[in-house]
């Protein structure tokens, strides 16, 4: 497993960090091909925008190029597929989710000189566009549409409840480690849903290089080991979680699972 630290991600573009993450989880990730494809798209975009002098119109042209001509779009049919979290697959299929589509569009935008930044809104990844002297606007990378403040409020209420208030922290610019951390959690969830436990375990191991003692990550690792029939390790991880988080609602269920697995281990020995 590759050990990655926050400063590594801060020093590179988000899409490059995503490719490092992808390869750490799935070694067969086509990193070189993805890098070459992104470089090709950037060159094509530069050529398409070369005669456009107005910056705002240039950016609108980039959006049209990305979503209409190149055909990038949100994966409506299989939103939770793990393929949507792997950059090479997104480039190949031209389908993804906000964070994967957004990381590619963010890279192209920044290379073309547009003032675009990443935002990890509670419900999804957004792009923040701030023209000099103007109020920031927000773009949903899933479809390339601008998102109004009222829509953001509605999303937040749907996520946190009717008393939720839209605050500046919700729209703060996110650093790469924060985005990569959420990306990793999303990828792990997708792989667990698909019962790809070996790959999900790599996600957990990678997450624990950032926060080695995270009890929830260790609990998830225990669940994965349980599915892989590595019950002794699973019991150890579950016991750690029970000790660290005694008030968690899932404690009684975990205690029962630990008891059952422990009896099995005793029987086997």
Descriptive notes:
This protein folds into two domains: 6-171, C8orf32 fold, CATH 3.10.620; 213-268, no CATH class. Helix content is 60%, strand content 8%. It is built from twelve helices and six strands. A four-stranded antiparallel β-sheet has the order 3-4-5-6. It has a two-stranded parallel sheet with strand order 1-2. The radius of gyration is 21 Å and the shape is globular. The chain starts with 5 loop residues before the first helix and ends with a helix. InterPro entries: SirB1_N, TPR-like_helical_dom_sf. This is SirB1 family protein.
Could you give the topology of this structure?
Blueprint: H1 6-10, H2 14-25, H3 31-49, H4 55-69, E1 73-74, H5 87-93, E2 95-96, H6 98-111, E3 116-120, E4 125-129, E5 137-140, E6 145-147, H7 149-160, H8 176-193, H9 197-210, H10 215-227, H11 231-244, H12 251-268
Parallel strand pairs: 1-2
Antiparallel strand pairs: 3-4, 4-5, 5-6
Helix pairs in contact: 2-8, 8-9, 9-10, 10-11, 11-12
